[in-house]
Amino acid sequence: MERERVSAEKAAMQKALDHNEVLFEQALNVAGIGLWVWDIEKDRCEYSNELGSKMHDLTPEEFIEVTSSSEFGLGLIHPDSRDAYLATCKEVERGNTVNHEYKGLKKNGDTIYVRETLAPIRDEDGKVVKLIGTAIDITVQHQTEMQLRQAQKMEAVGQLTAGISHDFNNLLAVILGNLELIKMKVDDPDTQANVDLALAATERGARLTQQLLAYSRQATMDKVVADPNRLIRDMDDLLQRSLPATIQVETVLSAGLWPIEVDRTQFESALLNLAINARDALPGGGKITVETANIRLDDNYCAEHGLELEPGRYVLVAVSDT
Question: What is the pTM of this model?
């Protein structure tokens, strides 16, 4: 009877331990915490819970195999973080608990960001014989913080741009006024032609200033109804000056083109950027073609090409190169 009683107590105790282990595993999963244990003497991982391995797209068995084949599991640590991670493990071996963040690797090589707590496990003599680690995947949080920092940086750039643009605009106003006075006082046709070129460049500078202010959210877009063919013709001189003599610019402008509502500065900037990109792709020279056309887009075309446009009438401006 006594033997049966002891056996029943042991069975009840084991059942309670198993139940508590299940509850503990569930609690870790709810909290999003991965857990692993490293045996220092055997130099291998002896345990990983489901969540700890899932962060790396591995099963617990795969996690143990991969980590045990490299010192302190560095096979799942991004090369940028391996030296710091190894130093952290050595610190824990000396008996210290360490909280740190590092870049890890998924099974397919993708990068994840992990926040981890490492603590020592001692034997009866106080010697550190194992390391226990709890880890949380903070990849989404890291990406959000990066986006916030980028937004803050762009805001600072915008503020700087606005200040410079205002100062530059004031300088251009002085230059423009003096050029107009010079034009009124000279009679030589060649000199007047040079002044006209300077006036046109100054006006372009003023439009560029408006573009910078719009970028910094200090000014609204100046939309006007315009003829795209006329806008392109007005840029002939600027395009030629921006391109080497080895590159020819050809325009194929459709007659009867519909007018468009557009910010002139943005239109010119986009066209100029496309021409400069084409220039970089033509180191040996070639030809750039600027074409315009009236087009109609139907539902099928927009759906087939994944265009986020309402079906209807549009004006096409195309830039191609050889």
Answer: 0.47
Whether the CB-CB separation of 51 and 28 falls below 8 Å is answered with yes
pLDDT at res. 294? 95
Average pLDDT, the chain: 82
Nearest alpha-carbon partner for 114 in 78, 89, 70, 71: 78
Tens-digit pLDDT profile for residues 36-78: 899 988 888 888 888 888 889 999 898 888 888 766 567 889 9
Which DSSP helix (H) or strand (E) runs through 223? Answer: strand 223-226
Distance CA 290, CA 243 (A): 14
Neighbour-count burial of 19, counting CB atoms closer than 10 A to its CB (0-12 exposed, 13-18 middle, 19+ buried):
exposed
Task: Output the CA–CA distances (angstroms, integers) from residue 65 to 41, 70, 71, in the order listed.
Answer: 17, 9, 12
Q: Which of 293, 263, 288 is nearest to 277 (CA)?
A: 288
Higher pLDDT, 219 or 137: 137
List, in order, residues 6 or more apart from 126 with CB less than 8 Å away: none
Q: CA 196 to CA 203: how far, in whole Å? A: 10
DSSP symbols for 243-300: S-TTEEEEEE--TTPPPEEEEHHHHHHHHHHHHHHHHHT-TT-EEEEEEEEEEEE-HH
Query: Is-contact 264 234, C-beta < 8 A?
Result: no
Q: What pLDDT was estimated at residue 257? A: 94
